[in-house]
Every structure is written in structure tokens, then in C-alpha cells.
Automatic annotation (TrEMBL):
Coiled coil: none annotated. Residues 31-112 form the Transthyretin/hydroxyisourate hydrolase domain. InterPro entries: Transthyretin/HIU_hydrolase, Transthyretin/HIU_hydrolase_d, Transthyretin/HIU_hydrolase_sf. One of its GO terms (cellular component) is extracellular region. It comes from the Eukaryota. Homotetramer. It is found in: Secreted. It holds the Pfam family Transthyretin. This is Transthyretin.
Amino acid sequence: MSSRTAPRLMTLQRHLGWPQAGNMATESSPLTTHVLDTASGLPAQGLCLRLSRLEAPCQQWMELRTSYTNLDGRCPGLLTPSQIKPGTYKLFFDTESYWKERGQESFYPYVEPAWHLTS
């Protein structure tokens, strides 16, 4: 799905009343993200991201969710409170595809922050 299609799909899902529409925005989540396109000064809408957790004992990343930023550049509801557990997490932001959709090159092909959650 292209990054231009994702916002349209989310809007359609909200209109249809799907519970998963809008990246679970109606459910409170302890983990969210907000992406701004500093080149345009606007929210980065339609940016694909993947949330993963490092799983023991083999120390491999398990993808938990793939989503797209909404019209406000936010991606609420990445995990519900019951899905969060202590561990190491990372978000993969597909910046290369985001810029390619806009006819530009990306200096960073992706951005991948990781963090430890202790409680």
C-alpha cells in the first residue's frame, strides 16, 4: 500500500465504523508517535512505520505492528496497555519511501530508534 493510499483507507474505515480504523485512536495507548516533516513544516502523513520487540532467548526482533501516520502525523494506539511488557522495543520509520512518494530523495533511508522499557 502506498503512503498516499493509507490516509484514504483510514478515513474510509472510520466512516464505515471499523473499530481498528485510525490506528486504534479510540483506545488509550501508552505508546504513540508523532512525526513532523520539517522540510514542509507540516505533519508527515502516510509515513509507514513498524513496531518490534526483542524476544528472548534467541534475541530476534518480533514485529508487533505495521501502521501509517494519520493526517496529523500521529500514530496513536500502537500497543494497548495489555500488550505492553518490559523489554527492548524499536520503531522503524520508512523515510525513504515517504520522500520517494513526494518525488524527493532521502538522506536517511530509515530511522530506527530503540529503547528499553522496564515497567
